[in-house]
Amino acid sequence: MPWRSTGLALETLPPGSKREVLIEGATVLVVRVGPSVFALDGICTHEGGLLVDGTLEDEKIVCPLHGATYDTTSGAVLADPDGVVPPTGVATALQRYATRVDDGMVWVELP
After folding, report:
1. Whole-angstrom distance, CA of residue 8 vs CA of residue 10
2. DSSP string, 25-89
3. For the whole model, what pTM was predicted?
4. I need a surface site. Which of 8, 19, 75, 85 has the fewest CB within 10 A?
5. pLDDT tens for each residue of 87-109
6. In 10 A of CB 67, how many CB atoms?
7. Tens of pLDDT along 34-61?
C-alpha cells in the first residue's frame, strides 16, 4: 500500500489533538495520543458524523451526532449510540491506517 503525506507537521499536532485531512478523496482523522500518532476513517459508521467535530478523551473519540465512541488506537467501537454493548449495535469499527513520521511530517498508509 502506498504512503501518502497528510501535509501535517508533527509539531503542529500536540498530544491530545486531532485534525481531519482529505487524501485522494478519503476523509482521514489524524489523532495524537501522547507521543503516538494514529489515523482512522474520519466519518462515523453510525450516522456519518465528522469525527473531527467530536470530543477526544484520552484514546477515545466520541461522535458529535449520537455519541458513538471509538478507540483511536484500533478503530474499535467502545460504545454504541443506542447504549448497546459492542460488538452488537449499529456502529461498526473504523478503518485504521498505519502512520509514520518522516522528517517531521506525518504520513499515512492508504489502500
Report:
1. 6
2. TEEEEEEEETTEEEEEESB-TTT--BGGGSEEETTEEE-TTT--EEETTT--EEE-TTSPPTTSS
3. 0.92
4. 85
5. 677 889 999 999 999 999 999 99
6. 18
7. 999 999 999 999 889 999 999 999 999 9
Residue type, 62: V
- Grid cell, residue 3, equals 504512503
Beta carbons of 76 and 7 less than 8 angstroms apart: no
Q: Helix, strand, or coil here: 11? A: helix
- Separation CA 7–CA 101 (nearest Å): 11
Task: Report the candidate in 39, 73, 44 with the shortest Cα–Cα distance to residue 58.
Answer: 73
Residue linked to cell 459508521: 45
Domain 3-102 has CATH 3.40.50.150: no
Strand partners, 109: 3
